[in-house]
């Protein structure tokens, strides 16, 4: 009884195996346009592989195309996909492999393969990744600019007080041919990263090229470069000397050039200290009132040539420490001065306060053109700023008077300040002209006993006025002229000021009209 049961179970199991195995094998024999049932491919479901082998092959091919490789060159890193690197599409070949598995062998081999597939034991391996050489070369060439590092030429610099050579730094370029071989091998071996081969790029100018020139420039810069013009000495800064000696390299040979344009400011600075106008030599009735002095002018064009010659000598390894710049002497002029005293009661005496400065030079020009004289009461602080104008006043025959040092109301000054206001200007005008003034006009006409006493102590007259056209209000030239003409009589003293344009505008016509009316001007 037991034996019969066992036989029946065995028969049933055998029938089941036949059904389980026979059905897929039958399908495989009929559906030759599909892979055999149960094949495994990558991480896809077996049902996906059987239902659409072409789509399964395409999915695996796309997955391979999206795989990246890390390419490194120096500090540059790139992660292109295999598709970017020129992967040959494996989809068709993989599809062919799927269709051939379990069908391209002997009957018994195919039977075994199909049986293994049913049990999930048969896997189709995709073909090895292959790169198209031309596409790979194009992809790597496109990376060349990013991988390439330009070399840095050696250069000469002035730093920390000395001339130094900054060394050259080699560059690099991608060796595309070697890189194609390296990437191809890495993809073949499924290596995740590749060190791209590079080739060094030499700098056009090396440290060795500059050594001799740097020594020449260093010697030239270490030595002082003194610009001498007359009594003036000025030392050019070392960095300016360095900038004036540029080094160029041609054919691997360095030479020291000259560019003196940058030293123009140094020459101008020397000229500012050297240039001066000649001072008048003033003689009054045989006595030298002011000795005069020669002027000087730096010849800038010749100075530039002298500096250029020195730089050229230094570029050749020679030169000297001091460059003498040519200075041209400007002779002084001698003029004969007249006392310029008032000529008596028939004259109208024109007086001008608050100079020098303002319009004093214009007023002097008009008086000279008209052959007229006047009296100028000058302020000490302004005389100090315009000594040549003070000398001109006296040299052209005008009378020079003291108008205090600061133009203060002297009636409100302390005795010490009052004395100083007069004495300081007296000494200043004497130093400028060699003549001590004898006339004084108090600012604002403010005078009291103390002011008169201080003037007497300096042997000064106290001069006021009789006609005041209020030109200091700047009412216009015609108004000033008409006011003076309406009021002035022989012997009158007219108060005018050098600071207002109205006075300048009025003066030519005023002198002409006074003279036409029989009133001489002094």
From TrEMBL:
<dbReference type="GO" id="GO:0016810">
    <property type="term" value="F:hydrolase activity, acting on carbon-nitrogen (but not peptide) bonds"/>
</dbReference>
<protein>
    <recommendedName>
        <fullName>NodB homology domain-containing protein</fullName>
    </recommendedName>
</protein>
<dbReference type="Pfam" id="PF12229">
    <property type="entry name" value="PG_binding_4"/>
</dbReference>
<feature type="signal peptide">
    <location>
        <begin position="1"/>
        <end position="22"/>
    </location>
</feature>
<feature type="domain" description="NodB homology">
    <location>
        <begin position="346"/>
        <end position="522"/>
    </location>
</feature>
<dbReference type="InterPro" id="IPR050248">
    <property type="entry name" value="Polysacc_deacetylase_ArnD"/>
</dbReference>
<dbReference type="InterPro" id="IPR011330">
    <property type="entry name" value="Glyco_hydro/deAcase_b/a-brl"/>
</dbReference>
<dbReference type="GO" id="GO:0005975">
    <property type="term" value="P:carbohydrate metabolic process"/>
</dbReference>
<dbReference type="InterPro" id="IPR002509">
    <property type="entry name" value="NODB_dom"/>
</dbReference>
<keyword id="KW-0732">Signal</keyword>
<dbReference type="InterPro" id="IPR022029">
    <property type="entry name" value="YoaR-like_PG-bd"/>
</dbReference>
<keyword id="KW-0479">Metal-binding</keyword>
<dbReference type="GO" id="GO:0046872">
    <property type="term" value="F:metal ion binding"/>
</dbReference>
<dbReference type="Pfam" id="PF01522">
    <property type="entry name" value="Polysacc_deac_1"/>
</dbReference>
<keyword id="KW-0378">Hydrolase</keyword>
<dbReference type="GO" id="GO:0016020">
    <property type="term" value="C:membrane"/>
</dbReference>
């Amino acid at each position: 009884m037991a034996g019969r049961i066992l036989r029946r179970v065995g028969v049933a199991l055998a029938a089941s195996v036949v059904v389980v195995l026979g059905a897929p094998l039958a399908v495989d024999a009929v559906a030759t346009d599909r892979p055999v049932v149960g094949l495994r491919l990558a991480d896809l479901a077996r049902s996906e592989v059987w239902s659409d082998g072409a789509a399964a092959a395409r999915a695996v091919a796309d997955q391979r195309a999206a795989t990246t490789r890390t390419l490194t060159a120096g500090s540059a890193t790139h992660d292109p996909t295999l598709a970017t690197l020129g992967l040959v599409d494996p989809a068709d070949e993989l599809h062919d492999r799927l269709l051939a598995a379990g069908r391209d062998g002997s009957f018994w081999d195919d039977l075994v393969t199909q049986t293994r597939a049913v049990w999930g034991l048969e896997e189709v391996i995709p073909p090895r990744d292959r790169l198209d050489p031309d596409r790979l070369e194009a992809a790597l060439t496109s990376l060349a600019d990013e991988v390439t590092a330009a070399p840095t030429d050696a250069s000469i610099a002035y730093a920390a007080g000395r001339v130094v050579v900054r060394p050259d730094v080699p560059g690099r370029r991608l060796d595309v041919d070697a890189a194609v071989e390296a990437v191809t091998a890495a993809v073949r071996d499924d290596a995740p990263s590749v060190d791209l081969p590079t080739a060094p790029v030499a700098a056009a100018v090396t440290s060795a090229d500059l050594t001799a020139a740097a020594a020449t420039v260093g010697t030239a810069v270490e030595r002082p470069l003194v610009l001498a013009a007359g009594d003036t000495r000025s030392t050019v800064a070392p960095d300016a000397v360095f900038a004036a000696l540029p080094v160029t390299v041609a054919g691997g040979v360095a030479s020291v050039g000259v560019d003196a344009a940058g030293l123009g400011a140094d020459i101008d600075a020397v000229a500012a200290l050297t240039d001066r106008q000649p001072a008048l030599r003033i003689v009054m009735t045989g006595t030298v009132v002011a000795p005069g002095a020669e002027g000087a002018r730096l010849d800038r064009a010749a100075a530039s040539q002298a500096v250029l010659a020195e730089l050229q000598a230094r570029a050749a390894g020679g030169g000297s420490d001091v460059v003498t710049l040519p200075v041209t002497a400007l002779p002084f002029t001698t003029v004969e001065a007249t006392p310029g005293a008032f000529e008596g009661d028939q004259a109208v005496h024109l007086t001008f306060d608050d100079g020098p400065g303002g319009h004093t030079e214009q007023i002097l020009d008009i008086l000279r053109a008209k052959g007229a004289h006047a009296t100028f009461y000058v302020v000490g602080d302004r005389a100090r700023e315009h000594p040549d104008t003070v000398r001109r006043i006296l040299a052209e025959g005008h009378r020079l008077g003291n108008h205090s040092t600061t133009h203060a109301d002297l009636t409100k000054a302390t005795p010490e300040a009052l004395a100083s206001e007069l004495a300081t200007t007296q000494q200043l005008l004497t130093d400028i002209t060699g003549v001590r003034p004898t006339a004084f006009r108090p600012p604002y006409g403010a005078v009291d006993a103390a002011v008169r006493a201080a003037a007497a102590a300096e042997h000064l007259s106290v001069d006021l006025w009789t006609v005041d056209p209020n030109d200091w209000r700047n009412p216009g030239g015609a108004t000033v002229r008409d006011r003076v003409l309406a009021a002035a009589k022989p012997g009158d003293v007219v108060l005018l000021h050098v600071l207002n344009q109205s006075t300048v505008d009025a003066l030519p016509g005023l002198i002409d009209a006074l003279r036409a009316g029989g009133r001489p001007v002094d």
